[in-house]
Amino acid sequence: MSKVASIFDLECLARERLPGVVFDYIHGGSEQQLTVQRNLDDMRALALRQHSLRDVSHRDTRVTMAGDPARIPLALGPTGLAGLTWANGECEAARAAVDFGVPFCLSTCSINSIEDVAEAINQPFWFQLYLMKDHKVNASLMRRAHDASCSALVLTIDLHTQGKRWADEKHGLAVPPRLTPANIMQMVGHPRWLANMAGSKRHTFGNFEHEIKEAGSIGSLSKWIEEQFDPAFDVNTARRVRATWQRKLILKGVMNPDDARTAIDIGADAIIVSNHGGRQLDGAPSSISVLPEIVDAVGDRIEVLFDGGIRTGGDIVKAIGLGAHACLSGRAWLYGLAARGCKGVTCALTLLEQELQDCMLLTGLDNLQRIEPGVVTAQPPLGRR
Ligand code: HOC
């Protein structure tokens, strides 16, 4: 088995192992993928300034995220269809997260259901909610998350429609994947994936099997989302969710100071600065570029979490250095899951932790919550004044 040195290696393994229809879904973004690229480019463009004459033999990376302990400041962010990359993928990823000691967030659009994950880990986890037009479905999902002891509800606010992912449209992405001649060729060409998927408990959206009649086989995903998801979702809807859900509430998809202040106003416990990994509004700025102004706007009145372009431990330091309390990542762990299941997720987390430790050693940090200004900067311009 090839040696994995970075998240980028896991990405390559995922690309090799998955049929194109599945890999393109997890890897891609909307339209021209401008925002996907910005998340990566802007993160890379930041510089880390070192302080070397410091004793950093003791380093503390622990933090609490929305009240839950995390061994490193990173939670596994919600990602749709993870269970199409590996049999029972959401349960496998949740197990890896629990064993490692970081929060796991299950997507509404997962293959394993809320109950599957609760049974697999027997520990609290986070549940991400998309609001449907049918309020009965929303109420039922919240009730089920509550009954499964979910400690936090992550309410995604940026999916009034699904960003158009051109690759998914060309593949005719459906759930379960549609058996077109091209897709059959791809699947047959990936026998390890095919054999593994045969062991899957489910092949469609586990959370909707009893909620939405046609959820057993969804022909066109984007059409289904248009039909089911609620474009009327506004601040009053978010207030109603707050009134219903008594545990921690996190608003995901905050990209401007106004929405951040509204989150405080409605009584959310945390926000996630996120452009949905560049999968929604193509052309949106990178999440890292808007983080400082959002942090300035809300101060420490709410926990500010960050998502968007985390591929190394140094990226976590960058986000925290610019004011985030902690981070979430989607693709980094998904590549691990797609490459090697539960072990691959553990591998992704271990790599990120090692890189985080190295970055702390080399920048002179013993505690991430006390990063002084100036550690994370724009790359200084070349040349003398
Ligand atoms: C496959 C379900 O987070 C994504 C999801 C949201 C879209 C829901 C569709 O693909 O970015």
TrEMBL record:
GO cellular component entries: plasma membrane
The entry marks the following residues as binding glyoxylate, namely 25, 165, 276, 279
Q: What GO terms in the biological process aspect are recorded for it?
A: aerobic respiration
Give a yes or no for keyword Flavoprotein in this entry. Answer: yes
Which PROSITE patterns did the record assign?
A: FMN_HYDROXY_ACID_DH_1 (PS00557), FMN_HYDROXY_ACID_DH_2 (PS51349)
The protein's UniProt keywords, in alphabetical order, are: Flavoprotein, FMN, Oxidoreductase
State where FMN binds. Answer: 78-80, 107, 128, 130, 156, 252, 274, 307-311, 330-331
Catalytic site: 276 (proton acceptor)
Q: Does the keyword Flavoprotein apply?
A: yes
Enumerate the cofactors the protein uses: FMN
**GO MF terms, alphabetically ordered:** FMN binding; L-lactate dehydrogenase (NAD+) activity
Q: Which superkingdom does the taxonomy of this entry point to? A: Bacteria
UniProt xrefs under CDD domains: alpha_hydroxyacid_oxid_FMN (cd02809)
* Chain ranges of the FMN hydroxy acid dehydrogenase domain: 1-381
Q: Which family does it belong to?
A: Belongs to the FMN-dependent alpha-hydroxy acid dehydrogenase family.
* Protein's name according to its UniProt entry: L-lactate dehydrogenase
Name the source organism: Massilia cellulosiltytica
Its organism's taxonomic lineage begins at: Bacteria, Pseudomonadati, Pseudomonadota, Betaproteobacteria, Burkholderiales
